[in-house]
Amino acid sequence: MTRLRELIGVAVAGLLARKTRTLLIMLGPVMGVAAIVAAVGLSESAKGDLRQKLQELGTNLVIATADGTFAFGTAPTLPEEAVERAGNISTVEKVTGYIEMTGIQVLPSAGGEDFFRTVPIPVLAADTELMNVLDTGLESGRFLNEFDQANSIRSLVIGNALADEYGYLEGETRTLSLNGRDYAVVGVIEKVELVPDLDRAVLMTPATAERDWDIEQTPTGLYLRVRDGTAEETAEILPQALALGGSEGVSTTIPSSLLEAEAEVDTTLQLIVITMGGLALVVGGLGIANVMSISVIQRSSEIGIRRALGHTRGTIAGQFLLEALVVGVLGGIVGAGVGVVAIVAGSRIGDWVVTIQPALLVWSGALAVVVAVIFGIYPAMKAARLEPLETLRLG
Amino acid sequence: MAEPSALFELDRVSRVYGDEVKVHALRDVSLTIHAGDFMSIVGPSGSGKSTLLGILGCLDLATSGTVRVAGQDVARLDDAGRSKVRGDSIGFVFQQFHLIPHLSALGNVATALLYRGLTAQVRRELATAALDKVGLGPRIHHRPVQLSGGEQQRVALARAIVTDPLMVLADEPTGALDTANAANVMEIFAALRAHDRAIVIVTHDLEIADRADRRVSMRDGEVVDDEILRPAAGTVVLP
Question: In the 8-state DSSP scheme, what is residue B197?
Answer without folding.
Answer: B
